[in-house]
Predict the 3D structure of the following.
Amino acid sequence: MALTWIRTHDWDAGTWRNRSACRDTDPELFFPIGATGTALDQISAAKSICAQCTVTRECLEFALATNQEAGVWGATTEEERRKLRKSWLADEQAAAG
Ligand code: SF4
């Protein structure tokens, strides 16, 4: 997945949470337990909500910057973020020069 980061270093500012598509949904949907059976259905449902969200990039960058280990953030699972975080950290270090 090729991503262009926001890189404002201000990922927690503003009102992006107020614009989240998941704001009025059941939080448990975004924090499934495990990665099999019902949890897979929850992950799929959560990601379909993320697909409608206008602040996916802000949400994902926040999750990477604050190392959110659990749940679906920015249309990614914890496993997907673990893989993304390495390249995100490398990009952060490169941007810092
Ligand atoms: S990207 Fe997904 S988890 Fe993040 S705010 Fe939007 S709907 Fe919620």
Notes: The mean pLDDT is 88.
